[in-house]
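sry for the spam today, last one i promise. struct tokens for design, 538 residues
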């Protein structure tokens, strides 16, 4: 860097209970620069950023983090040596932060305008009226439509992208010199991610602030950052210009990250003629009851159509990808396919329709299983691995002897790459003792043990790091080839669809905009919305 650094970090070490998790890292950020700190979960990147502002509790933080003065002649300040009172002045004014999940970072009891105005009142001493006007201007600068009205809305009344824009408005209200953006787009759809990154880039150019982007998404780093620093297990292993590091990675870990884009390894044969679909829908429609405004809501309820007129068919051994942004209706479609929502039109799974009665649907539930997005929340923390994986056998084969049931559990775990040799006492362990990728393997084993014909995969890798995502996708591809499984894949990730799907359905606002073979739809999209999704993932 030619310019003197705005922030220079040397020997940063963070330890919990005497155990270091960040091992003396060095990096610097120049004025106006965009530096990305990348690595998988547990690499120490978020802890390092939080430690700079004294936001890591019960930790021992050592080293130095020298922040350049605002005006010439003033001394630089070491953030790690500042008392809490002086550090309070730095937060928001010199360095601001945008957190990963705006729904948890924003106070649900206050309107977003009040939360932005509060920062201006505290940091700049503005009156209540001045702060409110400035808050509306800050929201307008982030591109929120009708900022004066949106300022009066509560967080739950805004979309995910609007909530993240409100967070950015709050962070930039005092025009900080450095913005720490901790996974600012992870919870957003692919097109919204690009909008937020574009917004950050525009605001960065207008204000001249520097940005430290903390992320595990290399795709976003390529589009946004000037330089990149790669962290592994609390150590900085490689640093340099984005084009250099990604084009010619020197460290083995960086090469592993760069090579982690999902790869396609599926059986490409067309479905056999006359073979009955595992899942078929014609004119599928799903409605939700919603309250009506005013007095009408006391006496009757309205209807919201979440899926309208969807047609598709899924053959054995093939994958149908359903892609779209949040609110497109893809998860509602998955719930209808699982018989968990009443649906109009025609819907048949394995040649049968859902009856809506537990006893009548039980045989079909064995044929149709599901793998959820977040393995940690979908696995009971109070059940052992043996109980979790074997639970389906207790329901569908209650007469199976315990020894045989245990053998089936061990075999199912082995199929997904988990064994007693790797994890002694495997069947007696609990989900919290495993990593995210291992927990997702447990969820897949739980689904497979009853030998289904169809798996509904609801964002099965979106909660995982890129390297773990690739491993889980490779596992699913192998299982499909070996068992002839059909997959209904729900996702917003175009790269995952390219790697896994034979056919794809593109949804928006509850309607199917485009459908067909994945190479045709993603290779030469006919609809403008599909083109936007493909371009956002390029």
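last one done:
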């Amino acid at each position: 860097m030619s310019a003197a650094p705005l922030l220079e970090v040397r020997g940063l070490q963070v330890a919990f209970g005497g155990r270091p998790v960040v091992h003396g890292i060095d990096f610097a950020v120049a004025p106006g620069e965009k530096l990305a700190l990348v690595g998988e979960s547990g690499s120490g990147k978020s802890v390092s950023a939080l430690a700079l502002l004294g936001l890591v509790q019960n930790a021992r933080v050592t080293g130095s983090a020298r922040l350049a003065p605002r005006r010439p002649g003033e001394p630089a300040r070491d953030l790690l040596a500042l008392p809490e009172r002086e550090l309070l002045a730095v937060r928001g004014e010199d360095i601001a932060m945008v957190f990963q999940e705006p729904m948890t970072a924003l106070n649900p009891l206050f309107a977003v305008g009040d939360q932005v105005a509060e920062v201006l009142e505290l940091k700049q001493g503005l009156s209540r009226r001045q702060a409110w006007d400035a808050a509306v201007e800050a929201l307008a600068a982030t591109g929120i439509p009708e900022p004066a009205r949106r300022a009066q809305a509560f967080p739950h009344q805004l979309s995910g992208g609007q909530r993240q824009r409100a967070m950015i408005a709050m962070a930039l209200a005092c025009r900080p010199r450095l913005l720490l953006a901790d996974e600012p787009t992870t919870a957003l759809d692919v097109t919204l991610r690009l909008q937020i990154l574009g917004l950050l880039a525009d605001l960065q150019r207008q204000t001249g602030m520097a940005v430290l982007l903390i992320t595990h998404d290399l795709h976003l780093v390529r589009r946004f950052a000037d330089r990149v620093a790669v962290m592994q297990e609390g150590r900085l292993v490689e640093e340099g210009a984005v084009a250099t590091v990604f084009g010619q990675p020197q460290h083995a870990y960086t090469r592993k990250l760069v090579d982690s884009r999902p790869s396609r390894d599926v059986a490409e044969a067309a479905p056999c003629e006359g073979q009955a679909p595992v899942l078929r829908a014609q004119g599928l429609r799903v409605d939700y009851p919603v309250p009506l405004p005013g007095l009408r809501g006391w006496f009757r309820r309205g209807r919201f159509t979440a899926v309208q007129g969807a047609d598709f068919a899924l053959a054995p051994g093939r994958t149908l990808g359903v892609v779209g942004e949040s609110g497109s209706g893809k998860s509602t479609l998955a719930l209808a396919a699982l018989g968990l929502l009443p649906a109009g039109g025609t819907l048949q799974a394995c040649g049968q329709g859902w009856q809506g009665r537990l006893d009548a649907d039980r045989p079909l539930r064995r044929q149709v299983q599901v793998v959820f997005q977040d393995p940690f929340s979908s696995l009971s923390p109070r059940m052992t691995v043996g109980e979790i994986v074997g639970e389906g056998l207790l329901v569908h084969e209650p007469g199976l002897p315990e020894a045989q049931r245990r053998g089936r559990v061990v075999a199912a775990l082995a199929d997904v790459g988990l064994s007693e040799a790797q994890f002694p006492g495997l069947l007696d362990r609990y989900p919290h003792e495993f990593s995210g990728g291992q927990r997702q393997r447990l969820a897949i084993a739980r689904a497979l043990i009853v030998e289904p014909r169809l798996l509904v995969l609801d964002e099965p890798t979106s909660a995982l790091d890129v390297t773990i995502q690739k491993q889980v996708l490779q596992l699913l591809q192998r299982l499909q080839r070996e068992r002839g499984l059909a997959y209904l894949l729900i996702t917003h990730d175009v790269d995952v669809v390219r790697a896994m799907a034979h056919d794809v359905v593109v949804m928006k606002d509850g309607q199917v905009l485009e459908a067909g073979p994945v190479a045709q739809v993603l290779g030469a999209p006919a609809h403008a919305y599909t083109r936007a999704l493909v371009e956002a993932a390029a």
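The two ends are 29 Å apart (CA to CA). ok im logging off now
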